[in-house]
Each structure stands twice: as structure tokens, then as C-alpha cells.
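Quick sanity check, Putative membrane protein:
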Amino acid sequence: MLLTEPIRTLPSLLLPLTGVLFLGGFSSGSFGWAAFGLVGSVLYAVVRWATFTYQVIGDRLELTRALIGRSVRTIPLERIRGVDVSSPPLHRLLGLAVLRIDTGAGGSKQEGELDGVTLVEAERLKAALLWHARARAARRAGARGTVAAHGDGPPGAAVTVPAGPFPGTPEPAGPSPAAAVPPVRHRTGETLPERVLFVVPRRWLAYGPLSGSYLLTPFAFVAGAAGLAFQWGSELRIDGRIVVGAGEWLWGHPLLLGGALVVLVLAMPVLGAAMYAVFNWDFTLRARDGYLVAERGLLTRRSVSLERRRVRGFELVEGLAERWAGVARAWAIVTGLGDSGTRGQLLSVIPRRAALDVVREAVGPILTGLRPHPPVARRRRLFRAVFPWLVAAACAAVAARSWPPLWWAVAAALVLAVLGVPLGLDRYRSLGHTHEGGRLSVRSGSLRRSQVVIEERAVVGWTLRQTWFQRRAGVLTVVAGVGAGSGGYAAIDVGEAQGVAFAAEVTPAWLAPFTEDAPPS
């Protein structure tokens, strides 16, 4: 940690130290102040390392830091919902890891972090902390004898879980309902049972750029370089007009500018695939002791654990290019999961058929036979895809009378309006919803089509929403409120009677007071 902490803070110190050197004219005094800054960062790392401790006391984990004032963070072990282990490049070279603890409080930041533990200690702590969460649930259900848990078998299977104390904690006073059951203890170095559900073949990393965002990697590099040029300009005494002048010169040479754009476009799939491979190298999904464990990463290896009994469904996502190639991505919908967009990912971009097989084994099968939405929904999709571009074309045509170069904008808007017709039709074909076997599903989108399958027990409320235009069209949007994932999933532009019937079918008792005549008083 005395090495990793200063190196991690070095980028934030680089600009100030460079400024000190330039302002001091690279004199001996400026070098002395720069050296003082580096030594100070090392001393700060020493103090942080020497004043931080962690320990498990009874049923809680305590993280103590005593830098200036004493700070103690207490995390009840029974609140722990997930433990993530990541190894940045320097940590991997030194055999270290970063362990982050999630308590299901929501948000994108975990409750606790242990930075710099050894890989062996990180895995031991992860297994012990997650073991304790299941043991607490087993003790609560000890009087009933069995617990409905998601183990390594099919979801929803009832398995008997023996109750036992957490290693190192005192036995509860008095007789225990499960006293006759031998306790299950976790020991250091013990290998927990696990099953590999899927390992993404490396040749499938070529599908990565189809997800869209990775294709913009070359332009992101160019934008980052331009930002650094402006940021470093004042520190390195580079006049900002030089950077602006370079841009104007490039703009004045259209052939060179066009060639640069062609190079960036050609580099999109190559650099996109490279960046995708860095983040998703050897993507592996495991079932281990009641958890789904997703591991990935080339430079920074990350392991995320999702408690299976808290999984309420999944989301299958397909972009337009992904649908053309027959590939898809999948996320788990988990209650109380912070940063679910990143931590909830079950599968990277893989063939759709393989994704459905893996999701079926890990969470449950996808629902087919979605119910179509009324024809008026098709007209609304077409209107929303075409009308804005027609308005833009009309505005550009009016402005083009004063400035003729804007006629190209009119042509571009008309082309986009024409392309909006197949886009609107595809958006309508993507709409659908259904309810079957204790689960419901909704689907929408075209450029990013998403189908969500959730258990009906996850629904905590309904929102039936109508805009003024929807009221005139006789449709509404039904949002199933879910205490997991994004918090709500919508069936868009369903018929009024159809939407109410859908909500009543899933939770009939909830809507009965609103759909039936009240009894006479």
C-alpha cells in the first residue's frame, strides 16, 4: 500500500508539480518543493495505512480509521448483500485486491472498502461474509426446518439449510430449533462448492463493438487529447490560440480533415473491440454457495457476487446492430443492488440463443407469446419517429432562404424523416407484454430493445399514466413498480381496458376496489 497509494494519487499531483517547476523556472527551489510534494504523498500513504484497521466482532464488521479524528464504520453482517473483489493492474502485480461491501442500501457506492488486502485474504473474507448472510437467513427459518432458497440448483427450489453460528461468534443461549443439525462452518482455505454456468469464448469478444458505445472509442480518445491540450496549455505556457489555430487550419484543409475522419471511422471497430476486450476479458458466470458470481477484466479483474434469493428477474437487451447479428446482453434484476447497471450484468455480448440458455439456468426462462398493442400504438410510434424531423426540415427551409448553405440540413432532415418510417414500425413490433406462470414481461425499444422478465412477487405497486395525447388516442402506459433494478418497468401504449386488465391479472386484489362498483352503504 505504501507503493500503490502514492502511485494512485500521482495523476492528481502531476499538474500542480509541473506548475511548480515551470513557475519556479526549474530552479533548485522548485525541484525542492516538487520533491516535498512527492514525499508528502508517501507520508500520507504511510499514515493512512498505519491508522486503518478492520475486524469482525460478533455479528458486525468494523472499519476503523484514526487519521486525525477517530472514525468507526459498523456494518451488520446480516445486511451484507454482496461482496465485490477487484484487482487493478498494480494490485495484481503485488498480489493485492480491493474488496468492496454492498449492503443493499442502493446508490452507486458500496458501504465499505478494504483496499490492499491480499488476494487470499480477500477471497477468505468474501466467502466468510457471504456465508454469514445465508447462515443468518437459515437461523431465522430454523423453526420451520426448511428455507426457500436459490442454491446452485434451479431457482425456486426448496432446500434444507442447516443453521449454525458464524465462525468465531458465541453460541446463542438456550436450545436451538436446529440444534440437532450439525453446524456448517467456513474455514480458511476451504473450497466452497461452485458450478461454472458459462465462460464467454474469447472469439466472441469480436461482438463487443456491436453494443454501440465502444464504437466511439477513437472519438473519445481525440476528445480527451483536445481536453488535455487545453488543460495543459496554461501549465506548459502554450497559448490557447495555438490550439484553436491548429483546429482552424485543419478545418481549412477539407481533404486532410476528411482523411482524418475516415481513419477514425475505420478505427472504430478495431479500437472498440480492443477496449471491450479489456473490460470483458474471460467473462465467467458461476453459481457458488447461493450466489451468482460474475468475473471479468484483463487489466483490472473484477468479481461481483449477486445473492440468488434476491434475484427477481432479468433484462435482455439487444441493440439494432446486435439484433442483426443475433447477439444480446443480459442483466439480473436484484433487490437492493447498488450500481445495478454495472454490478448486475450477467452476460456480455454473446449469441442470443446462448444467452437465453444461460439465463434460463441462472434465473429463469424468457417469456414468449407477447400480447400485441393496439394499432393506434403503431400510429403513435410512426408520428414520434417522423414528425420531429419534418419540423426540423421546415425550420431549416425557412432559414435557408436567408443562408443557402442550410439547404443541406433540409435534405438531411428529410432523409432522417424517411428513415423514421421503418424505425417507427420496428418500435411498434417490439412492443408487447404478457403474464404467465407467476411472472410478467414487458418489451419496448428498437435502437435498444429491452425485454424484462420479473416475478410477480417483485411488484410493489402500479402506475397507470396517460398524457393528453394518449387520452385522445385511448391508450395508456402501465408501469409495474419493482423494488429492484431501475425501480419500474413500463408497458407502453396499451389499450385502456387492456392495461387495466394486465395489472389486475398480476395483482387482482389490488385493483379490485378501482375496477368494481363499491358496495352500497
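Posting the structure with no commentary besides this: The chain has 15 helices and 21 strands.
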